[in-house]
């Protein structure tokens, strides 16, 4: 039931992001000259690396889910022996990569603000920060969820099916956030 509820909730989140995409394309259609001017300020190579980090975090997350499904909470062997990693190690790696993505977004925001791209500066600035900012809030929510799942693994005496389901549900959310970012990245950075 938890998995089904999560999927239904993510469907509502999908509608939220669809509205953001619609506003982006609507404002872009009205202000095409502004778009050409403002998108020239985007650092596409930097954003590409940041996107790669987020996409790879989804791979790490899924490897953590596979470990949870095997009932392997912690690593077997050295921390440098990746093949023996459990849920904790993969989720910690996912958390670190997600935090790097958020730091990258903050760095990009600072750079764009120096270039004069702000929320009140233009319709482009408004829609750029709304779409990427709401996505960033969703990534931050995912990072908090990873901390909660990791905390549960340390607090529980025994790893249970319910904890594995929690890891799976968090992975659904994380994969959703990644897929949304791929759409945003393509829309904002590649389709200029």
Give a description of the structure.
With 192 residues, the protein is mainly α. The radius of gyration is 19 Å and the shape is elongated. The longest helix has 33 residues, at 123-155. The N and C termini lie far apart (42 Å). Helix content is 81%, strand content 0%. Helix 1 runs antiparallel to helix 5.
Helical region count? 6
Largest sheet: none
**Rg, please?**
19 Å
Uncertain ranges = none
Share of β-strand residues? under 5%
- Ends apart, CA distance between termini: 42 Å
Give the integer mean of the pLDDT values.
91
- Count all strands and give the number: 0
CA-based shape: elongated
* SSE order: HHHHHH
SS content category: mainly alpha
**Proportion of helical residues:** over 70%
Q: Short summary of the structure?
A:
With 192 residues, the protein is mainly alpha-helical. The protein has helices at 2-30, 32-39, 44-70, 87-114, 123-155, 161-190.
Task: Reconstruct the topology from this structure.
Blueprint: H1 2-30, H2 32-39, H3 44-70, H4 87-114, H5 123-155, H6 161-190
């Amino acid at each position: 039931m938890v998995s089904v509820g999560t999927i239904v909730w993510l469907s509502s989140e999908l509608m939220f992001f669809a509205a953001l995409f619609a506003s982006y394309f609507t404002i872009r259609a009205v202000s095409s000259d502004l778009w050409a001017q403002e998108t020239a300020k985007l650092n596409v190579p930097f954003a590409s690396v940041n996107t790669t980090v987020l996409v790879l975090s989804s791979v790490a997350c899924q490897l953590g889910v596979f470990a949870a499904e095997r009932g392997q909470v912690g690593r077997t062997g050295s921390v440098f022996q990746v093949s023996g990693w459990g849920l904790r190690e993969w989720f910690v790696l996912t958390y670190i990569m997600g935090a790097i993505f958020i730091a990258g977004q903050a760095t990009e925001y600072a750079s764009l603000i120096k270039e004069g791209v702000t929320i009140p500066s233009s319709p482009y600035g408004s829609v750029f920060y709304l779409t990427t900012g709401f996505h960033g809030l969703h990534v931050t929510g995912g990072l908090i969820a990873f901390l909660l799942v990791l905390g549960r693994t340390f607090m529980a005496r025994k790893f249970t099916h319910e904890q594995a389901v929690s890891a799976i549900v968090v992975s659904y959310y994380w994969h959703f956030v990644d897929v949304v970012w791929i759409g945003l990245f393509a829309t904002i950075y590649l389709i200029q």
